[in-house]
């Protein structure tokens, strides 16, 4: 099973852990990382993901996040197809540019699941409903989940 983790998932351990949701998303990431380490999941990364990680200001946060990325076995390179899919997602679903590129990268890279902590992307109308339809048009059955939901349903 190939999963694509949005930048915000990798960064969750560095957010305010006093908030229950953030703590649960961090716990879910740890479970997912265990699944990556033991070979249950294959993670897909992309140029946009690596770009965003390089822009993290905190050296500790950037280094730890890069360590997570190093577990990935598959990377989708930037190509025209990703830009085209991203434009469709942005225009049709109203998703922000970078989020649309993440989603397009996951679709083009053959991800089974796209995991994000972004409520806009996981919303029934804007994110999941619309983006999963676009994914299907490109031959992908990719599902979009918050990491907590993914762990409950798939682990």
Q: Report the total helices.
A: 9
Main sheet makeup:
5 strands, parallel
- Overall pLDDT metric: 95
The number of strands is 5
Subunit organisation of the chains? single chain
Task: Please state the overall shape, judged from the principal axes of the Cα atoms.
Answer: globular
Q: What does the radius of gyration come to?
A: 14 Å
Major sheet strand order: 3-2-1-4-5
Low-confidence stretches: none
Question: Which structural class is indicated by helix and strand composition?
Answer: alpha/beta
Relative strand content:
5-15%
Give the end-to-end Cα distance, rounded to a whole number of Å: 11 Å
Helix content: 55-70%
Q: H/E series, N to C?
A: EHHEHHEHHEHHEH
Question: What is this structure, in a nutshell?
Answer:
By secondary structure, this protein is an alpha/beta fold. It has nine helices and five strands; from the N terminus they run βααβααβααβααβα.
Describe the structure.
- The protein has 155 residues and is an alpha/beta fold.
- 61% of the residues lie in helices and 12% in strands.
- The chain is built from nine helices and five strands.
- The protein has helices at 7-11, 20-37, 47-54, 59-69, 80-93, 97-108, 119-122, 124-137, 147-154; strands spanning 2-5, 42-46, 74-76, 113-115, 143-145.
- The protein has a five-stranded parallel β-sheet with strand order 3-2-1-4-5.
- The chain is globular, with a radius of gyration of 14 Å.
- The termini are close together.
- The mean pLDDT is 95.
């Amino acid at each position: 099973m190939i999963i694509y983790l949005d930048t915000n998932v990798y960064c969750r351990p560095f957010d305010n852990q006093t908030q229950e949701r953030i703590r649960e998303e961090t716990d879910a990431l740890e479970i997912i990382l265990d699944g990556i380490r033991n070979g249950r999941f294959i993670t897909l990364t992309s140029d946009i993901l690596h770009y965003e990680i390089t822009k993290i200001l905190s050296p500790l946060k950037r280094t730890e996040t890069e360590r997570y990325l190093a577990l990935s076995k598959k990377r989708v390179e930037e190509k025209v197809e990703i830009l085209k899919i991203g434009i469709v997602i942005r225009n049709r679903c109203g998703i922000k540019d970078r989020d649309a590129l993440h989603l397009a990268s996951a679709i083009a890279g053959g991800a089974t699941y796209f995991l994000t902590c972004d409520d806009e992307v996981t919303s029934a109308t804007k994110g999941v409903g619309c983006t999963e339809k676009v994914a299907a048009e490109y031959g992908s059955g990719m599902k979009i989940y918050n990491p907590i939901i993914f762990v409950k349903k798939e682990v």
